Structure formats: C-alpha cells, structure tokens
Amino acid sequence: MTDKIAVIGFGNIASAIVTPLLDKKLIQPENVFCVVNTEKSLEKIKNNYKHNINVYKSGSKESKIIWDCQYKLLSIKPQQLNYISEAYHIKNKDNLIVSILAGVSINRLAQKFPNHKCVRVVTNIPITIGKGLTGISWGKEITEDQKQFTKKLFENTSKIYEFTEDYLDIFLALTSSGPAIIALIIEALSDGGLSGGLPKIISEELVMEMILGTICLIKEKKLTTSELKNLVTSPGGTTISALRVLEKKSVRSALIESIVSASNRSKEFR
Ligand SMILES: NC(=O)C1=CN([C@@H]2O[C@H](COP(=O)(O)OP(=O)(O)OC[C@H]3O[C@@H](n4cnc5c(N)ncnc54)[C@H](O)[C@@H]3O)[C@@H](O)[C@H]2O)C=CC1
Ligand SMILES: O=C(O)[C@@H]1CCC=N1
User: Fold this and answer.
1) Which of 27, 130, 140, 148 has its CA 20 to 30 Å from the CA of residue 225?
2) In this model, does residue 87 exceed pLDDT 70?
3) Does the CB atom of residue 74 touch ligand 1 within 6 A?
4) In whole angstroms, what is the distance from residue 104 CA to residue 118 CA?
5) pLDDT tens-place string over residues 64-82
6) Is ipTM beyond 0.90?
7) Hey, what domains does the chain have and what are their CATH numbers?
C-alpha cells in the first residue's frame, strides 16, 4: 500500500494493527502520520518505537497534515471523540475514516466527520501476532477501493467478518473484551495450582498448555463442548467435583452476563 495513512491516537490497539503491517513492509513508515495527545506519548514513539513513522502532538500546527491523508485510522477512546474535529478545508469525499472505537455508531461518525466516508471496525489484541479477529460494518457509499483498503489493513493479521452494524457490540464483547476474560480465567486457574503447591510459573504454563491442547482437540476431532466434557468427567470422579463447585458459584451465568454487560456498555457509546 503506497497511500498515506493517518493514525489518530497511537495507543495499544493502533500499535497492534499498524506494527505488523510495518514489520511486513506492507506499509512504509514515511507514509504513516500519527497524532497523539500527550508529550509523553510523543517522546515515547519518537525515541522507542522501532519504525520511523511521522508523529505529532494533537493541536500542533504540524499535526494538521493528518487531514491531507486520504485514509485515517481513528483509534482514540470513545470518551475522547468529542475533542476531535474534522479540519475545515476537507471537502473531498474520497476521504475515509476507519474507526475502531468501541460502540460509536456509523451515524455518529458521519455526523462528526461530514466530509468523510466512515467504516466501523472491531478488532482484537491478538492481531499483534497475526491471530486477530476483525468485524467490519460499512457506512454509506463506501467505494470498492475503500473496501479493499480497509480489508488490507486487517486481512494479513486477522480473520475478517463483514456484519451489519447491529452485530458489532456483541462481536466486540466476545472477541475484543474476551482476551481479558480469558486472561482472568488463566490467572485464577493458575492460582488454583499455586494453592496446590505448584510454583506460579509452572502452574501458569500448565494452564495455558491445557487450554491450547483442549481447543486443538475440540477443533481437530470436531467434538462438541459437551462431548469433550463427557470424555473427561467420570462418575463420582474429580472433574464432576470441580464442575459442581463452578455450578454452585454460578460461574456459567457470570460468564454469560459478563458478555452481555460488555455488549451493553459498547451500546452506551453509540
Ligand atoms: N485495546 C483493545 O484491545 C481494543 C480497543 N478498541 C478500541 O480502540 C480504541 C483505543 O483503545 P486503546 O488503544 O486500548 O487505548 P489507548 O489509551 O492505548 O490509546 C488511545 C490513544 O489515543 C490518544 N489520544 C487521546 N486523545 C487524543 C486526541 N485528542 N488526539 C490524538 N490522539 C489522542 C492517546 O494519546 C493514546 O495514544 C478505543 O476506542 C477502544 O474502544 C477496540 C478493540 C480492542
Ligand atoms: O475495554 C475497552 O473499552 C476496549 C474495547 C474492547 C476492548 N477494549
């Protein structure tokens, strides 16, 4: 891709999206123009980031250059959106904003950026290592070129799903918040191992290998989750004893509600 790309907000997820593209030379550092809102972030990117991208502080005169880039990745927090305004001189409708903001609707983006076409994307942090999941919802009048460009940003590092917008909140709850839920489960199970006397490092490794092995088995043998559960759970055995505790503590319900809650929170950012 030889187009200039503006990145508005270069935090955790923007870096996770852009860095693999730079690593694989799919985009060139001189074509990336990013803007951040603190001096600290600016210095960190200038001094420590491994690629020599262009970076500016928001509000500075030089940062206005981002509005001349045809493609923009909007990657600030939803709560920070009010502080961004489209530059007055943009009149060219060829401009595209790819927003990865949780919850913020295409409608709101279109109102905020009247001289841009807008795409709403949900992606997740495993995109850093090429194992991401990306949901895309197209705004009005997106051209084929703009679709191709958006897909190119994500297709090398994630599986892409095209959805109508109403699926994006639940997609985000499962796939974007999901990694934190899984990390919490790994941490908690490891603490269980710790309680049984295992060193933390071994306990954590065992949990992660067990989870990986379980997922591979389910996928390779095309098992249902119930079939897998039955393979492990003997009458009067250890596993049913463990599962009984989880049911008593309503862990299943807590997990369901955690996803519903994340999805509802996303909807609040409309
Ligand atoms: N972290 C994740 O796994 C995911 C995050 N998202 C969404 O991505 C967005 C960014 O999230 P993170 O990267 O985690 O946040 P972050 O806090 O790491 O990054 C936000 C960045 O925006 C910059 N910023 C804030 N105000 C600005 C302004 N006025 N002008 C320019 N830059 C400004 C900050 O300096 C920071 O670099 C959020 O909207 C979030 O909902 C979506 C899916 C997954
Ligand atoms: O917690 C958040 O708001 C962001 C959106 C999805 C993952 N992280």
Assistant:
1) 130
2) yes
3) no
4) 11
5) 999 999 999 999 999 999 9
6) yes
7) 5-165 (3.40.50.720), 178-267 (1.10.3730.10)
The structure tokens listed for 82 are 């009010």
CA-CA distance, 54 to 66, in Å (whole number)?
10
Distance CA 132, CA 17 (A): 9
Phi (first) and psi of residue 138, to 5 degrees: -85, 140
State whether the beta carbon of 127 lies less than 6 angstroms from ligand 2.
no
CA of 163 to the centre of ligand 2 (A): 19
- pLDDT at residue 49 greater than cutoff 90: yes
Nearest ligand to the CA of 178 is 2
Q: Is 102 in the pocket of ligand 2 (CB under 6 A)?
A: yes
76 in contact with ligand 2, CB cutoff 6 A:
no
Compute, in angstroms, the gap from residue 76 CA to the centroid of ligand 1.
3
Q: How confident is the model at residue 92 (pLDDT cuts 50, 70, 90)?
A: low
